[in-house]
Amino acid sequence: MKSLVLCQCYTSLPPPMYRRINLRMNFQTFNPFFFSSSTTSSSRRTLSSISGILLFSPPPLVFITFNLNIQMMFCINMLQRFNSNQIPYPFQSTKEGIRSVLIQEEEHKKKQKEMTITPAIKISNQKLIIKDQVILSGVPDNVISTSAATSGPVEGIFIGAEFTESNSRHVISLGTLRDIKFVSCFRFKLWWMSQKMGNQGKEIPLETQFLLTESDDGSIYTVFLPLIENSFRSCLQGNSMDELELCIESGDIQTKASSFTSSLFISTGSDPFDTITNAIRTVKLHLNTFRQRHEKKLPQIVDYFGWCTWDAFYQDVTQQGVEDGLASLSSGGTPPKFVIIDDGWQSVEMDPQKRDDDRDQVYRLTGIKENKKFQNQEDPTIGIKSIVNVSKEKYGLKYVYVWHALTGYWGGVRPGVEGMEQYGSVMSFPAVSPGVILNEPGWKKDVLAVQGLGLVDPKSVYKFYNELHQYLASAGIDGVKVDVQCILETLGAGLGGRVELTRQYHQALDASVARNFADNGIIACMSHNTDALYCSKQTAVVRASDDFYPRDPVSHTIHIASVAYNSVFLGEFMQPDWDMFHSFHPAAEYHASARAISGGPVYVSDAPGKHNFEILKKIVLPDGSILRAKLPGRPTKDCLFEDPARDGVSLLKIWNINKYTGVLGVYNCQGAAWSTVERKNVSHPTGTNALTGVIRGEDVHLISDIAADPNWNGDVVIYRHSDGETVTLPHKAATPISLKVLEHEIFTVSPVKVFGSGFKFAPLGLIKMYNAGGAIQDVTYLVENELGIVDMAVKGCGLFGVYSSVKPKQCTIGSVHVEFSYDSSCGLVTMSLGRMPEEGRSVHVVRVELV
């Protein structure tokens, strides 16, 4: 029987850099010049897998050095067309050839020893040093580090610690942090994160899950990512001595450990956004328990306008209420294409026996089907399918989602209830971690902490999800909003801890969603703990912040700041959803404009009959689609370490990109923030004067990537949404912007293309919409006999604008010449796209001719 030999080799072109290749050869037909004298026939027969090095030297000599129990060398006289080179007979004497290879190997090893590679990150002399800058001093001896790199300069390290005793919770100092600018994302509630900036260790909040630092000169960014390790989850916190502490806990007193090797990952780079993305990628490869946003399928609801029933009806939602809301929105020319039927459709009941000491009763799930409010009166067996049919057939919706909690309902699944016995639900009482309790003291008396939750047996939770989702899918439901997710971290006692319980539930949820909802129809909500983020492979949309509170005037500036900064971290895992809002509200435009540039889904929770269609038409096209930006909206680079909610001087700038343009949203978010002292949102004086900042083309972080010219010089045209002001900004130039509290401004930013005989051109888009540039799907530039031609594919309808350095000769839409206006003072060209593209076409073809 012929045996096969697998050669794993390293090749060099040129030496000494190697790359791995695989050679698969038939051993009996492989005819080497020689075996070394120490090679026996027995050892030849036992060959199955060999590793070697292919070495080249001029003239090209090829050797494969094998490391086995007995070292041997093969010399191949010819390897046909390997790396496009013909390999000649390499030598006359076998001994000379062997000597030549050994000399080359020894010289190469010597050079490697002489090379000094300075790690980008290292712990030395009890200091954490990032590219020669000390970040932490006084690092304890029991803190251990492991390189994340396999070769070359070390750009990341894993941090762990050794303890003298096994325990379910450890807190260890990582050293002192002083005079280092940072931004953190921390959980101020069990469910939600917010941002905090500072430059001293004591300012780092409890439950910090993401920390980014900046060097003094702004050239080096370092990200700290507390991780999950086996059954433990970590977070960061500061103490009064400016020490950065690592808290490692399992959430189960029976789940203990004393040794940790990778509870924290630290990585560095010169670009903050790339540094974060690369760090998350390294963690993904290390853990193999989650996927990044760009690897997941986005549900198509993100490209359409929607409506959620929550703020319109809360738990009193009915089938008739859903119909009323859909009819009301459709009547104004902004038809929703998806609906989220929020809490209020399920079959739930209170416990049979009321407790005397309970002010509020917890409701628990008693069945997977809808309650009587959503049963067709004429034929109750139709169930929730009735409103699904009405939504899709009468109102033209594409997608219907419903809400449910990760545990079924707020109070879980009632144990022993008829028809639900197979899920093995048992009463469990939340045990909230010390960090959360300190940030959110109300948990000590929370109704769930007192009355408990009916927790489905982790071994049966896939059966529960699958039967629930299968029923919904059979009724035409397209997806689910899965809420209350962080509650799992409090229920791990006796079940292997918080991470293990979360892992089991999310694996089951992922599998059920993949099986039952073809469009990956799921939105994660109340899910900001890293237990969930690092255990989810399927969910592609996540709520980005605490709720939109229409009746709380303090909340609106807090909301915009939180969604932007949380998206810096959350956006690496999923597409952040900046939540519903009201179109008829004092802060409606403030919220609406932010949703339009968020890159995520856009939906309102208006009560029927209470809409501002003028605002909605700046987001929604007549066919119910939206002009969605490509990425998660995030603060601009120069805002990352400023505090636009607390410092009284900074404006928040949010950037995003489309295919051919960028967009900037500028917001005054001063006046209110979560207080680390009072443990609640508090307002603070801001004065009545406007704050002034500046915007630049480079504020759109990836602006050079979308420029149509590889030799782009950095010039941009900026279109101001509120008044139509159009300005050309040279590279690095800035223009001022002044805003009072709760004021905002949107700018379309378009790179200037220079072509032909000096024509300058920049597409802007549907300039009456917040994200104008999202309408432009394609742009091509041509020059014919000194005539400059720009062809554009444009989605939607409305007033269309471009910048041109000269007045166009003519403009056409399709083959039809159209009237246009030209403002020579700023170069703005406008024309009307009066209606949506003709049936069967997704875009208008717009041509502008320049001479």
Automatic annotation (TrEMBL):
Its EC number is 2.4.1.82. It catalyses: alpha-D-galactosyl-(1->3)-1D-myo-inositol + sucrose = raffinose + myo-inositol. One of its GO terms (molecular function) is galactinol-sucrose galactosyltransferase activity. Keywords: Carbohydrate metabolism, Glycosyltransferase, Transferase. InterPro entries: Aldolase_TIM (IPR013785), GH (IPR017853), Glycosyl_hydrolases_36 (IPR008811). Pfam families: Raffinose_syn. Belongs to the glycosyl hydrolases 36 family. Transglycosidase operating by a ping-pong reaction mechanism. Involved in the synthesis of raffinose, a major soluble carbohydrate in seeds, roots and tubers. This is galactinol--sucrose galactosyltransferase. It comes from Papaver nudicaule.
